[in-house]
Amino acid sequence: MKQDMIVILDLGSHENTVVARAIRSLGVYSEIYPHDITATELKALPNVKGVIINGGPNNVIDGVAIDVLPEIYEAGFPVIAAGHDKALCEVKLPEFDNNEEAIKEAVKGFVFETCKAEANWNMKNFVADQIELVRRQVGDKKVLLALSGGVDSSVVAALLHKAIGNNLYCVHVNHGLMRKGESEDVVEVFKNQLKANLIYIDATERFLSKLENVADPEEKRKIIGGEFIRVFEEEARKLDGIEFLGQGTIYPDIVESGTKTAKCVKSHHNVGGLPKDLQFALVEPLRQLFKDEVRACGLELGLPHAMVFRQPFPGPGLGVRCLGAITRDRLEAVRESDAILREEFAKAGLDTKVWQYFTLVPDFKSVGVRDNARSFDWPVIIRAVNTIDAMTASIEHIDWAVLDKITARILKEVPCVNRVCYDLSPKPNATIEWE
Ligand code: XMP
């Protein structure tokens, strides 16, 4: 790795990632390390140019004050402290205010003048470095990758394909709960355009029959997750000589899994749960990237814009949006109404503005009228939310004209639907998904 690095030592500040992001946006690579890193460990990291000790309000944790080891100040790197009062520090920064621009201004002098770091962090260099590292790690061995079509797995697939070509085996499991056109896009981009080894499994029947009459949301999730692993495992066993498993782990997954001082937000699991006797070493070339950097990496690798800027989509897919026990006709109503919503959002320029938007169909009917006769059909519910981290969310205030148009199209084009509703609930008390 050629790029210079500024190390952030984590004293429990909520802003570690904002500081890391701010430094990276100055063109200098930055990573977060635990507060108790030793001087030897610090010196072993590649191209460290300086250290920021970032202690926020949490640096008294569970009644115990925590600090970096005194030897860090003697390790031979410029050291700066932010957000806490330490007489030892060379320079003291004002408490950060979680604003990336302000942080950039505050650290600029330290990064470039004190540390003499070079602005050599960019996607071109990152991709070149990772290709080199993957080749070194994998050699002429084979790598298996579960390619869901989500941003992270798609970018990993493109990167690994560039690095090792046909030694990459991508498996795309279509569980029948994908959005309209999604599996087709995966096949088109990876098999037809990039000519990657793509094993496409249409497991729709298998998933839907397992899910028949299952109404409990947790039970549905368990069945979908478990079945996914079984299908993937069956394919893995058919392939000979696979030694590595590619994973779309990204930096927030690692940071959110809980550093020593940060509260654990959520435990990270990707293809966790593979049977113990299927033993692979992991290849995780995106593990240093924030989400927007993953997207930039995807663009650098030539992936289509729509794939790189795809909105978040839950693993259980439309299964958690076809509420209660899934039926095929209601699942189609979710898929078709979702496609209409996405199309109209794109036309109105809302696709780049709204964080997540989708439709769902509950498992009850209401009375309506169609062609002068009584109807008894399902409602479609539209949900459109904005959020920074998916922990809280607010609803998007959509123009009535846009909603009118979407409603008219859904009522006209989607069979067995006679009402369209808009979900006004923020998170909390609601969650983003309904199940
Ligand atoms: P909730 O409904 O918990 O959703 O407010 C927060 C975000 O997470 C997504 N989500 C999932 N993503 N697997 C995923 O990969 C899942 O099982 C899952 N469940 C929810 C949801 O779409 C939203 O973006």
Write a structural description:
With 435 residues, the chain is α/β, with parallel strands linked by helices. The chain is built from 13 helices and 17 strands. The strands form four sheets. It has a five-stranded parallel beta sheet, covered by helices on one side. Strands 10-9-8-11-12 form a five-stranded parallel beta sheet, with helices on both faces. β15 and β16 (394-395) form a beta hairpin. Residues 263-271 have low confidence and may be disordered. Bound molecules: xanthosine-5'-monophosphate (XMP).
How much is the radius of gyration in Å?
24 Å
Shape field: globular
Number of H/I helices = 13
Low-confidence stretches: 263-271
| Distance between the first and last residues' Cα | 43 Å
DSSP strand content: 15-25%
Listed once per kind, the bound small molecules are:
xanthosine-5'-monophosphate
Taking strands numbered 1, 2, ... along the chain, how are they ordered across the largest sheet?
2-1-3-6-7
* Count of distinct strands: 17
- Main pleated-sheet profile: 5 strands, parallel
Q: Give me the secondary-structure category.
A: alpha/beta
The H/E string reads EHEHEEEEEHHEHEHEHHEHEHHHEEEEHE
* Helix share bin: 25-40%
Integer average pLDDT: 91
